[in-house]
Give the backbone structure.
Amino acid sequence: MLQTPSGGARSGTAATDRELMSIGTVLNRLREEFPEVTISKIRFLESEGLIEPQRTPSGYRKFSAGDVERLAHVLRMQRDHYLPLKVIREHLDAMERGEAVALPVVGRQRTAEDVPEPPGRPTVARIGRAELLAAADIAEGDLEEWESYGLITPLEDGVYDAGAVTVASLVSELGRFGIGPRHLRLMKAAADREAGLVDQVVAPLRRHRNPQTRAHAEARAKELAALTMRLHASLVQTALGVRLP
């Protein structure tokens, strides 16, 4: 298992070509602990300033062992502590300055109860309303407005799944560019349609009496979700005539 960074030099420091890794190699190393991580996720964390891989003259990313450790630490803090990227970045920067800093506590921490049972359907990690507001650094009025537009929906018992933190953080960031919740209804509707398509494909497997078949349905759903997300991103890039790093 990958270890947390020890507060050494930030990613991007000099390393020999033999020590550097491609993004594909990094992905394979991370997937041992984080099976759902994707290349797009790694690129997103880079765009947010969490890592700074080196670049070849032709523009390809090259990662050091320190980059991989830092990535693992970021993913672990998101998964286990539901921390927003801003808080994670500040925490890591403080560590690299040699400061003795305690791990920030925002929202409910991940426990063994949050780990899904292999044969059945995954257990959803949950957080309360106050924890969501704190983790996403948003106001009560913002959350109420986003709920009215269907962008965030509480579960039956009034709590939220951990993914709501990510949604809230992204909606907040888009708001800085003047993109409000009414503009995002189309995106939510498109996401619902994509989810419905995936559900339609895996529904027969989920209804199967064999637990292994039902477990296979979840794996297939994740695979299809990743493919639809990649297609969606590619279609948006093509429509805008831009190419993301």
About this structure: The chain has a mean pLDDT of 78.
